[in-house]
Amino acid sequence: MPMKVLHILDHSLPLHSGYTFRTAAILREQHRLGWETVHLTSPKHGVAAGADADREEWAEGLHFHRTPHTPLRVPGLGEWTLMDALTRRLHQVAAETRPDVLHAHSPALNAIPALRVGRRLGIPVVYEVRAFWEDAAVDHGTSRDQGLRYRLTRGLETRALRRADHVTTICEGLRQDIITRGIAPGRVTVIPNAVDAERFQLGGTADPALKAELGLEGCRVLGFIGSFYAYEGLDLLLQAFPRIHDQAPDVRILLVGGGSQAEALKAQARDLGIADQVVFTGRVPHDQVNRYYDLVDLLVYPRHSMRLTELVTPLKPLEAMAQGRLLVASDVGGHRELIRDGETGWLFPAGDPKALADTVLHTLARAADWPQVRANGRRFVEEERNWPASVARYQAIYRRLTGLGEAARAG
């Protein structure tokens, strides 16, 4: 009998995010290992309750069970009703599919229902931490650092970590934080972020028509493609740009995407007098993203230093390396786990616009080094940060919790 794992998720495809891309990669690799997987999303995926609610959906070749739910707009109670709805739906799906393992993915709002159902049905629970919800809420402005909601959320996460049969996480920074909460090191395993290098083609040639349309003809381009959250540090890139432009007048900035900081960044560009040198495209269709990447000479990831960025490794630098692209990034902990300064990219001290400007200028002036750095980055993801190597780490965890590996060997 193949291993059967029921994954409990915050949201999934067809929504596109780093969270959903990691999930899809894990599921597909587990299928290649011969395991059977079942997938359930929480009410946060966004399926309203009702007689005609879609309780199942296929997306990009993967089947998902949904949890219809009408949120309760009462402060402090909404999360509890969400967990209750997910508990009921999870119990139903688990009773029907009879998995060997319940694998809950961040946040704790998914882990607590998994623990409830796991205890009732006698199924071991793995909890995977991709980030701490309380830290993300601080950056998004929905919670105050060390405020009541922050402390309650942190307490809920710690409770889930202590009760889970095993904990997995995406990087060493998060692992160390989990251990400080009283979790034995042997119960915490890193399943690092990775990429499927074969799904990423090496960067192509810039489309002259698109370059002309955006006013970037004859320019060298610094770029960022993604969501404009405050922690991404795009304000720092704008602060650094006048110094860059003084010494390299042909340089422009291309910002592709949108998010909570979009209007503030546009206002900052106007205040700095650089609005005519910064191109905001807005969000672009997913199948067109590579056309914009191909316009960029140097990707910039200037994340600010905060708990979230010091602890969590992002996917974007890995995806950039898989495409053989060049990148400059701040030296926050999440970047230092991925980027080898001067070898696969370049790092600068976080929060320092002068250092960012100088690193960009130094990199632009060293074009002779670019081919080797591109090759080093591609080799890093092919040899060290690939999904087969990453997902294989689940095997020992699942086998120990279920005894299925021992049973197979005995047979």
From TrEMBL:
It comes from Alkalilimnicola ehrlichii (strain ATCC BAA-1101 / DSM 17681 / MLHE-1). Signal peptide: none annotated. Keywords: Transferase. Pfam families: Glyco_trans_1_4 (PF13692), Glyco_trans_4_4 (PF13579). One of its GO terms (molecular function) is hexosyltransferase activity. This is Glycosyl transferase, group 1. InterPro entries: Glyco_trans_4-like_N (IPR028098), Glycosyltransferase_grp1 (IPR050194), PEP-CTERM/XrtA_GlycosylTrfase (IPR024004). CDD domains: GT4_WbuB-like. Residues 18-193 form the Glycosyltransferase subfamily 4-like N-terminal domain.
